[in-house]
Amino acid sequence: MTPHELRRNPVKATLAAGGHAAGAMVFEFLSSGLPQIAVNAGADFLLYDMEHTGTGYETLKAHMALCGAHGIVPLIRVPRGEYAFIARALDIGALGIMVPMVGTASQAREIVACTRYPPDGRRGAAFGFAHDSYAGGDVAQKIAALNARTLVIAQIETDEGLENVESIAAVGGVDVLWIGHFDLTNFLGIPGQFDHPRFLAALDRVLSACAKHDVAPAILVSDDAAAREFARRGFRMMAHGIDHLMLQQAMRNSIASLRASLSAKDASA
Fold first, then answer.
1. At what angle do helices 83-91 and 57-70 cross, to 10 degrees?
2. Burial level of 253, CB count in 10 A (0-12/13-18/19+)?
3. I need a surface site. Which of 16, 65, 235, 265 has the fewest CB within 10 A?
4. Is 5 exposed, middle or buried (0-12, 13-18, 19+ CB in 10 A)?
5. Mean pLDDT value across residues 36-56
6. Using CA atoms, how far apart are residues 250 and 13, in angstroms rounded to an integer?
7. For the segment 228-268, what is each residue's pLDDT rounded down to a tens digit?
8. pLDDT per residue as tens digits for the range 138-192
């Protein structure tokens, strides 16, 4: 296997070139049809959550393969920035990882090291597995290609992370800074107040750090108005979500319509 035969990561390439990427976060609905549905919806990536959901690697391994079959980039948010979580997510086929609550440059460097093979990092060797499509080939070429394609997303969602955001953004191998908006407002003492001046100032600080170090700023959005506003501010990677709340809202609207129709029929009887 030569490097070009490994699965590519067009999201990383697009962001590195200054472009945009749009996708969705996956929390609850792990149907086998989801990757194809997302492709048909126009998504560039699916970001699967392990931090809050309890989803396990065995389930995610199947989804990594499905994403590969349908040509969408699979990413995984691991529970914590520890080697065992990060390396396993990559070995089952994720093309990138998101790590929550990154607080310091030292933590960011350790995270990047977990995604890279020696001498650039400390990722353990296992070739001919899911991440390299169970194929043979030159190991050195594989290492270079796998190191190059892996997307590293550090979440800025604590007061510590915000304080150190400039040094985190400066760490080589960090591709994306993703604002964890709910957690960040919690740590700033303004829970859920997304129009508060302190939160807006935090956005600007993260955006400034990203611009200075050629790192892509990213965030999760839940409606069109928020997407337009974050795009205006300069965010280049966004995920729509949350999946179960989207379904719940659509179901709520449908049930309300059904009840209105039934009530109207009763009134006319």
1. 40
2. exposed
3. 265
4. middle
5. 96
6. 34
7. 999 999 999 999 988 898 899 999 999 999 999 999 877 77
8. 999 999 999 999 999 999 999 999 999 999 999 999 999 999 999 999 999 999 9
Q: What is the mean pLDDT of residues 82-105?
A: 98
For residue 97, what are its two tokens? 């990882």
DSSP 187: H
Nearest to 22 by CA among 255, 245, 242, 227: 227
Closest CA to 238 of 84, 45, 16, 72: 45
| Phi, then psi, of 151 in degrees rounded to 5 | -90, 130
Integer Cα distance of 63 and 149 in angstroms: 19
Torsion over CA: 187, 216, 230, 238 (sign): negative
Q: Which residues are catalytic?
A: 52
Q: What is the pLDDT of residue 269?
A: 65
DSSP structural state of residue 124: P
Q: Which two tokens stand for residue 112?
A: 């990047």
pLDDT of residue 174: 98
pLDDT confidence band for 2 (50 / 70 / 90): very low
Structure tokens, 131? 């991440």
Record the tokens describing residue 94, joined without a space: 């994720």
End-to-end CA distance of the chain: 72
Q: Please give the C-alpha separations between residue 153 and each of 44, 143, 210, in angstroms, as whole numbers.
A: 16, 20, 12
Please give the structure tokens belonging to residue 45. 């990536």
